[in-house]
Design goal:
Strand content: under 5%
Pfam family, one: PET117
Oligomer: single chain
Protein name: Cytochrome c oxidase assembly protein
Largest sheet: none
Shape: rod-shaped
Family: Belongs to the PET117 family.
Main location: mitochondrion
Distance between the termini: 112 Å
Number of strands: 0
Order of helices and strands: HH
Number of helices: 2
Subcellular location: Mitochondrion
């Protein structure tokens, strides 16, 4: 085999091996990124469920307090027309 053909064979072989290695690591990185996305989605869903549970608890407490206490709109003297200065 001539020197040029050996050099061509070595170059193409190294190029092919390099491409295979690059694709392998690229696929691994993509798989890890996708897995991280799934973990992030689970965490967002968990937070949403916690917030919804807190909201429901606050709503129940509000209803309970409204039964016990009288609640107004917060309209002070200025809103009722009695707070004008002479």
């Amino acid at each position: 085999m001539s020197r040029a053909s050996k050099l061509t064979l070595a170059t193409t072989s190294l190029g092919a091996i390099g491409i295979v290695v690059f694709v392998h690591y690229s696929q691994r990185a993509e798989k890890e990124a996708m897995h991280a996305g799934v973990i992030r989605d689970y965490e967002q869903q968990r937070l949403k469920r916690e917030r919804q549970a807190d909201f429901e608890m606050q709503r129940a407490l509000e209803e309970e307090y409204r039964k016990v206490q009288t609640v107004s709109d917060g309209g002070g003297p200025a809103q009722q027309g009695g707070g004008t200065a002479s």
